Amino acid sequence: MNRRRFMGLLSAAGLTAALPAPSALAAGRQFSGHPDGSGVLFDSERCMGCRKCEQACNEVNQLPAPDRPFDDFTVLEHQRRTTAKAITVVNRYDVPGREQPVFRKAQCFHCMEPACASACFVRAFQKTPQGPVTYDPSVCVGCRYCMVACPFNIPAYEYDEAFSPKVMKCTMCAPRLAEGKLPACVEICPKEALVFGKRTDLVRMAWDRVRKAPRRYAQHVYGEHEMGGTSWLLVTGVKPELVGLRTDLGTTPAGEYTAGALGAVPMVVSLWPVLLTGLYAVGKRKDSEERKEREAAVREAARREKNEAERTLSEFKAKADKEKAEAVEREVRKALSEEARKRAQEVGK
Ligand code: SF4
Ligand code: SF4
Ligand code: SF4
């Protein structure tokens, strides 16, 4: 079953418009998390908004050229979100009472227990023990429920791709990590605003920085506990909400959060994944039934042909037998008649 057909089934069932709110989502699977995995620490006090990370990301991921070049800083005049063509973006925040603007790089947080993975019933998203949350487009049915589920509004969809659109988000450069390389954005950052390492070390490093310079940093390591923790961490000199970060997420992982929501809205939420899975199964079953019907039709045609052939053969055989019997009878009669004629001749002599 392809994506188009799956979405068609959802639409036909009137479900695309009836998605539950993000607070009441996800399929309820829980993830154990991988505390030994890697992550990245972003320090907004070191970032100067040069956008080199955006450019490096664009290049290593072979994304389309942006509408405006990476050295065009007028893009910073507006807040941007990640898109299918820009899986990381740097935004500028002018904070009242602060002379210098604050820059924040946005991308997937690679949550320890990702809501996107919880919501994905075909398991296209996986939290890997190494840290990255990966996405497998080959199993994705394009329901885009991950986009609804993500509390950070990160996954984007390739709406422009007519044939095989994918969900796009930062991979933490998982292919590069597998080759022993750094994430491209980390490698290029001229200010070392990005540090790659083991998550537990990064948490320690982050707290070292904020404790040693309490006037420079807000006493908060964003991502240490939010939504059960994230592999991409952040320290900043201002309150997180002033650089566009959500502070209403709590510390409950997506899976447990869903369990709570299940209790609150049992009929909608608990039925949703069942319904999705059911629709998917119905589609699959329909495909399978169509295939079975086609096979049965072929078998039936073959059976009819065979029966017909056997009937024709049998008629032909019966006719041949009859003709043969008549021929034998004729020959016997002829022989008897000849014999009678000979005897009559002998008697006449
Ligand atoms: S490359 Fe570094 S300094 Fe430049 S915008 Fe990105 S994170 Fe900030
Ligand atoms: S930030 Fe969003 S897309 Fe990234 S892992 Fe977390 S829930 Fe998934
Ligand atoms: S880790 Fe890789 S994919 Fe993610 S923002 Fe950095 S360069 Fe882009």
From TrEMBL:
Residues 290-328 are annotated as: Disordered. Pfam families: Fer4_11. InterPro entries: 4Fe4S_Fe-S-bd, 4Fe4S_Fe_S_CS, FDH_Electron_Transfer_Unit, HmcB, TAT_signal. GO terms for cellular component: cell envelope. This is Fe-S-cluster-containing hydrogenase subunit. It is found in: Cell envelope. CDD domains: HybA_like (cd10561). Keywords: 4Fe-4S, Iron, Iron-sulfur, Metal-binding, Repeat, Signal. GO terms for molecular function: 4 iron, 4 sulfur cluster binding; metal ion binding. It comes from the Bacteria. Residues 1-26 form the signal peptide. It comes from Desulfocurvibacter africanus PCS. Residues 38-68, 131-160 form the 4Fe-4S ferredoxin-type domain.
